Amino acid sequence: MFDRPDSGERxxxxxxxxxxxxxxxxxxxxxxxxxxxxxxxxxxxxxxxPDPKYFVGEGKLEEIKSSLSAFDADIxxxxxxxxxxxxxxxxxxxxxxxxxxxxxxxxxxxxxxxxFEGKLQVELAQLKHLxxxxxxxxxxxxxxxxxxxxxxPGETQLETDRRLIGVRIxxxxxxxxxxxxxxxxxxxxxxxxxxxxxxxxGYTNAGKSTLFNRLTxxxxxxxxxxxxxxxxxxxxxxxxxxxEIVLADTxxxxxxxxxxxxxxxxxxxxxxxxxxxxxHVIDAHVEDREATVVEVNKVLGDxxxxxxxxxxxxxxxxxxxxxxxxxxxxxxxxPLRVWLSAQSxxxxxxxxxxxxxxxxxxxxxxxxxxxxxxxxxxxxxxxxAKIISEHIDEDGTSELVVEIDAKHLGMLKxxxxxxxx
Length: 421
Known about the structure:
Strand content: 15-25%
Number of strands: 15
Number of helices: 12
Oligomer: single chain
Distance between the termini: 80 Å
């Protein structure tokens, strides 16, 4: 048995070519830096299949051990998902903390979560991940040994830890269900008011939060790092055609996103699965941008959001040569994608234009005249239409300029109205 080593700051990265491509190694370095470690050396190799005991072969294991000594490193980060037994075997052989890709992403999420809901979601994911790694992981969980005088409390302690983790998981799930109900109530109110919901989705570090701030005037945290923001934020956004949308910033996606995180962030990601439109933000200057689009669409499919209409936003064109802001359209003339820079603001006006076009179908602007005794009709108008302006005279009559969906015109039968434009 062994004591589990503490986490360190100087990291040796391990990347084997199995099914993943060379771009995954660059992403591992970014993940390592985002977690606060200093990647001092990279051990690479290739195998047809992982070794069942160490994931790597005996020779590669010795290379990792030598690298730890040569570069004075105190943690090893694998760019692969390790089984609990592989993780324990590696830590015992190397004498340092070993973290796989899933554990690394979970650690970054734990650092980034700020809100009560976000912290609960991350803790739930960590506990589910930890529950598979309890057995023989720590000295105080020592298993019972045969023989008189050698029977220790190991199994009892292990069972206690498992039970406590199970109790905590149930507590968190109960709290998250309450938060989910509150979110559902908010979405129901927006649907009743017929305010379209638009969710920003995309690969991590594509610039979603920067674009969100640019569109809404918010001031949420942004940084050139993976998973800079986790906690969902919703803001109202006015469009040039006087219509209004609710914009939601969601957590970024990544290749091989741990299943524990997808499950834990289900209520947060539901903002995307129940949106009227997805703004798929794509980093236009990365070489493998098409691969990131595929990965994002995979996660959207997992959360039942693959059916929702998308408007692609190719961001960071300021980092490209000879690319100007523009709108690409389909055969019918509807916007398909917008090229812009959220950082500089170039092309933001085109995005506003595209959103206005997508949400203007069926909207009619009306000038309504209401008498003082038409309070019930006024209440109906406030329920089914967007109020652009209202003026009430001294005698109690009202003059309203509203925008209403064509399907609700019948609700204005009792009101004297004139169409504008």
